[in-house]
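Could you help me review a protein record that somebody else here produced? This is what I was given.
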Amino acid sequence: MDYRNPSVSFFSILTIIFILCSIVIIPQISAVEYPINVWPKPTTFLWPNPIAILLAGNFTISAPNHRYLTPAVNRYLRQVLTEHHLPLVNPPLNLTSASQLNTLTVIVADVTSPLTHGVNESYTITIPYSGSTNAILTAETVWGAMRGLETFSQLVYSNPSRVASGLYISDVPLFVHRGIMLDTSRNYYGVNDLLRLIKAMSMNKLNVFHWHITDSHSFPIVLPSEPELAGKGAYGESMRYTVADVKNVVEFGMEYGVRVVPEIDMPAHTGSWAEAYPEIVTCANMFWWPAESQWPDRLASEPGTGQLNPLHPKTYQVVKNVVHDVATMFRDELYHAGADEVVPNCWKTDPSIQTFLSKNGTLSQILEIFVNTTLPYILSLNRTVVYWEDVLLDANIQVSPSILPPENVILQTWNNGPNNTKKIVDSGYRVIVSSSDYYYLDCGHGDFIGNNSKYNQPPGSPQDDGGSWCGPFKTWQTIYNYDITYGLNEAESKLVLGGEVALWSEQADSTVMDPRIWPRASAMGEALWSGNRDEMGNSRYAEATDRLNEWRYRMVTRGIYAEPIQPLWCVKNPGMCNTVH
């Protein structure tokens, strides 16, 4: 669904008429010059005479009654009346002597549209100079209304509460898929951490929480049909996600306009399954890189071995139970089935696979057996399947495109930057971009191998990337400047659904989650919402610095512990922390 050029509704016409009647001349003012800004930057922001108006003490938000919009309205009403945000740099805004603003009226054209991939998130906001007229928020769907409510909340500041007035915003995202992937297998995150993540995502207009739930290290989700997987595969009883926990996360996501997409990675990354079903997992609990062997001879790409055996009949009995339960617990139409990093030697340790190979079979054929058996079942549950790019592009083990129908399969890229994105769209597939060169948030924190010889070097030795396989650290500027459609023509670009930053958790847990993710995910959020270039086509990361500083500070005051991007002195002294070179 493409809604980047939405049809003009009756309410939009009314809004435009109001603006034209209120504003005679609209100068070309860049949003960066405005004393108050919104993150992510709206696609259209007209504020010809910046001024503020007080919110009335009995200010209200009027909106259609809706299961998820109503809680959002109540939440934002409390926020604008009680937040009393004080910006780092006090906005030089005159307070109008006009009457106070009494009401924000929310008008939704279609209150029935579900929260699905591609749902219309566009909205407009009109805030008058005079409080005698209501502010108006129009949206095609309740999910667009939620995005508009977030924008309105960022326009409110000070004590007593005041709001930017005499402005018009029309906003719609460039990309429909804007997400964060979090790995909860390598280290555990509590439910409250996941809820806080979703809350912060909504603030940044990100709409997909890609939950990488399981891996070789632990199986933390309790499944009714296969309780032993978590019973034996989780780190402990307190490190499990129950059915009630999942329902809580999914429902919380709905109230914040964030979809929750589950990933149960397979057939690789399944060592934790062996605690309950050792017979269906090859090379489980073996040392990952045998002594005196070369990298191609490893059993896994990091400690934590184990891959499902596609030739064992019981594998599919367990897999189908897992898929059925997960699809029942998560309502989203996307189901992420993993399929990355299938390591040849792990499968080769199994006698049945050795026999298959001795009869001129190949490892790619074994993967095709697995995909051919599991993909139709997932599709029968009315899901679109997301795989990591490896299933098609891996150099050693991959499947034929003929068994991956593009209308039912989306590929997520993580290697080789824009080159792999190009390969995927050239093959006719829709793609989600998570390039490790730009979007991996765990990179640059070293290596977690206990006796890595890279750290036992004499002083003066080159440190390279500090042992991090994907180093260096991905700065917010690196993330902001990445063009996920680089090198693609217009037709190819339409197959790029959007992107996800990813936090793999070898060296992360709830204690560092917020600063690892924020505000770097905010940088991606703006790039995918309204772009990373100005009206002249120039990169705008430099002017985004001051705005991101302010936005990061506001997130912190809202309970999201985002890391700083500059000394506070830089914010207090605009332009002094730039370079002339």
